[in-house]
Amino acid sequence: MNDRLKKWKEKEITLDDVPSKISNGSKVYIGSCGSTAEASLQAMVDDWSLANIQILQMIPGGNLPHLTQSLDRFRTSSFFSYNRTNFFSTAERHNTEGLTDYTPVGVNQITRLLQENCVQVDVSIIKVTPPHKGFVSLGMGVEATMDFIRHSKIVIAEVNENMPWTEGRSKIPIEEIDWWIPVHKPILTTHQLWPDLMSGPAYPQEILDKIGSHVIKEIPDRATIRLGVQPMLYSVIKFFRQRSDLGLHTDLLNQELYNLHMEGVITNKYKTIDNGRSVVGQAHGNAELYDFCDRNPIIEFHPSSYTCDPQTLGKIDNLVSIVAALKVDVTGQVATDSIAHKFYAGVWTDEDSIRGAKFSKGGKPIVVMPSKSISGRSNIVFELPPGTGVSITRSDVEYVITEFGTAYLYGKSIRERCLALINVAHPDFRPELLNQAKENRYISMSQPGRFLSSAYPAELETQHTTKTGKQVLVRPVKTTDEDNLRNFFHKLSDHSVYLRYFRKLKSMPQRILQKTADVDYSKDMAIVVQDCVDEYHHEIVAMGQWVSDPTPRGGLSELAFQVRDDWQGEGLGTFLFKRLIDIAKELGIQHLKADVLNDNKGMNIIIEHSSVKYRKRSDFGVVTYLFDLQLEEPKPTK
After folding, report:
1. ∠ CA 606-611-615 to the nearest 5 degrees?
2. Which region among 25-34, 46-55, 526-535 has the lowest average model confidence (pLDDT)?
3. Of 95, 294, 310, 291, whose CA–CA distance to 189 is shortest?
């Protein structure tokens, strides 16, 4: 036996010896999740000579007996507020005083906090693998553990043969460990760490699936994914199967992400850093996941100072960061850790993830949440409740996604933000939110609010290829299109304006813009054609609509469409006309009409060369087409 191994053997102690290595008043780091040193922690609680011990932990979970102790014995400082572990009875739960100190700070700042003595640590108790060539691996919990070890006076290790040996910056030399105890217990699974998290109140799967269906639209093939640690995000992961060759650079590897590795969805082939490797800070799941991580070079575990650093994240092209929110106000301020004076989670890496994606070339920072809380309150609010912390500022928010769609806020005014977020709020709360926004002059008092009467028909969105092969997106108009419609008008020639509006117009009146963009889809319809399939960076090049007669007599709905001069000849007029007729028939509309100037040869030809049955009359240079959609002949079957 060489001297190195001999010295290592001399450091072996038992669990009963652990309390004697810790002085009263010590600050003790114990790891987190599956890497929590729960055996040593139990030994500390069982020794009544210990007092005034402060436990430092990243994310509490598993068997945490110190939480039932009085603050004279143990208290916990955590970087994530979570004290439901189900390892103690209901009666004991009422006495869990220990978890009172939640520190709202980004995880990648812990290095600096320790360096500047803002956070102090005396003892680190860690869980590691057996030694190999003079090193041990921190296994499933690297996070900020190395920083705590570096600043500790004493380092005690639970050596566990069940801990996977992980690759990356996860190894420390055995000389850095002062004492070690053999504790060969199985690594706790996700369910064992947080039993009530799996069985407690949850959002309906249908709502989570709708959110996932909107999120996946923002993720291209070959993107690199980064997720927050909130459990709600687990439901989004299954939609990643609709993409190929994804990369992973995130805080936590869980069971769902492990499955995507096994299925070949996550390959990391196109990452611009750490190519071919997933980068994580910690992991929890079941035994299969732990086996997968053991000595696997395609999964690297790194400190939080690397996995969460915005500058590092910015070097990853096409980084999509997804975090879950608790509340968002109508200007875009996001709360992720608290509502009013109650803490539910942690700041963790949410802000850093959002900023990292903003720095990334092609990156997308996404905030997701159901439109309504489990208790039935709106998650989109006019103002955050007093006491609520703003984790992500309105200037950093770009995408907010609920089950009702996506609100794109980047570069948008307060008016545009209000309308976009009200559009994705739960319908039960939209009228109140609109009224509050009007009363506080966030939006114009003249805003009609017709869109409140019906849901945005996302199913009508479609991609289309023009005659010359250009790809365009065709979708229903949104209230946030007001400025886009104004820009569309001012790119029309004077002649095109005259043909559409039967008169010369130098500008588009606000009331007409509002009427066009603010649509009750159950009565009217307006669809726009974008010059690219990216919904958020585009120009409108064509539009079509029908508008119901608002008079008491309720005449025929009037149809019209128009194509920008520089896009004419692409077949968009014909496509729009057919598309509007098809939508009308799907919605059960029986009659439409169109008034067209005789001089508008293009529109007359489109209508008269179509298969749509019509009657027409001509008066004073205006041709009126009457469409009776009931007379439409059924399409021949193949």
Report:
1. 80
2. 526-535
3. 291
Task: Judge contact between 95 and 72, C-beta under 8 A.
Answer: no
Q: Which residues pair with 319 in a beta bridge?
A: 224
Give the 3-state DSSP-derived string for 526-588, with helices as H, strands as E and coil as C. EEEEECCCCCCCCCEEEEEEEECCCCCCCCCEEEEEEECHHHCCCCHHHHHHHHHHHHHHHCC
DSSP string, 580-638: HHHHHHHTT--EEEEEEETT-HHHHHHHHTSS--EEEEEETTEEEEEEEGGGPPPPPP-
pLDDT for the residue 5: 86
Indicate the pLDDT class of residue 87, thresholds 50, 70 and 90. Answer: very low
Which pair of tokens denotes residue 528?
A: 């726009």
Q: How far apart are CA 577 and CA 320, in angstroms?
A: 37
Separation of alpha carbons 622 and 634, rounded Å: 30
Instruction: Write down the pLDDT at residue 554.
Output: 63
The closest of 406, 354, 373 to 535, measured between CA atoms, is 406
CA max distance for the chain? 108
Tell me, letter by letter, the H, E, C secondary structure of 516-528. HHCCCCCCCEEEE
Question: Judging by DSSP bridges, how do beta strands 540-547 and 557-563 pair with one another?
Answer: antiparallel
pLDDT in tens, 1-30: 688 888 999 999 999 999 999 999 999 999
> What is the rounded distance in angstroms from the CA atom of residue 568 to the CA atom of residue 602?
10
Q: Say whether pLDDT at 492 is over 70.
A: yes
Classify 168 as helix, strand or coil.
strand
- Mean pLDDT to the nearest integer, 125-144: 96
* CA neighbor of 325 nearest in space, from 295, 362, 283, 367: 367
Q: What is the pTM of this model?
A: 0.91
* Closest-CA residue to 445 (of 415, 424, 486): 415
Cα–Cα distance, 221 to 237 (Å, whole number): 14
Please tell me the distance from the alpha carbon of residue 423 to that of residue 427, in angstroms, as a whole number.
Answer: 8
Q: What is the rounded CA–CA span in Å between residue 100 and residue 75? A: 7
Confidence of residue 632 (pLDDT cuts 50, 70, 90): low
Helices (H) and strands (E) in the chain — how many of each? 21, 33
Write a three-state SS string for 355-400: HHHHHCCCCEEEEECCCECCCCCECEECCCCCCCCCCECCCCCCEE
Q: Please give the full DSSP string across 297-318, using - where no structure is assigned.
A: TTEEE--HHHHT-HHHHTTSTT
